[in-house]
Design goal:
The chain is of the alpha+beta class. The protein has six helices and five strands. A five-stranded mixed beta sheet has the order 1-5-4-3-2. β2 and β3 form a beta hairpin. α4 packs across α5.
């Protein structure tokens, strides 16, 4: 007789539950509708623990995105994820943004970003060379 396989369940939390965890003993934050226990990461955060403490117990999505974290930083978050917000507490715009950056970090949408990362510096270099040669030849 075959046994049914059970998929791992995802813990869900309300915003009120997350708000209870806002001190240095337990620091939880929400980013893109996902709940993270970042207590053990406080001392390791490059920006200092105060930056995370300011957002503890609440939705830190905007602050996280305003800083412009790298794909490496986004991957570093994964082990700290303890669950997701319940559907009633989720923000709709975050669902799409979360999906977008997770696809990029998984390598699914990096093709257009890779050429942009070198195109702008090359274009600026060419422009600077042309401007320099123009001024040198006119003097």
């Amino acid at each position: 007789m075959a046994t049914a396989s059970t998929a791992p369940t995802t813990n869900t939390y309300t915003r009120l539950e997350v708000a209870k965890h806002k001190d240095t003993k337990e620091t939880w934050i929400i980013i893109h509708n996902k709940v993270y226990d970042v207590t053990k990461f406080l001392n390791e955060h490059p920006g200092g623990e105060e930056v995370i403490q300011e957002q503890s117990g609440r939705d830190a999505t905007e602050a996280f995105e305003d800083v412009g974290h790298s794909s490496d930083a986004r991957q570093m978050m994964e082990p700290y994820q303890i669950g997701e917000l319940v559907k009633e507490d989720r923000t709709k715009s975050d669902d799409k943004k979360s999906e977008d950056w997770s696809n990029k970090s998984n390598g699914k949408d990096n093709s257009s970003d890779s050429w942009r990362s070198w195109l702008i510096p090359v274009a600026l270099g060419v422009l600077a060379t042309l401007v320099y040669r123009y001024f040198i030849s006119s003097h």
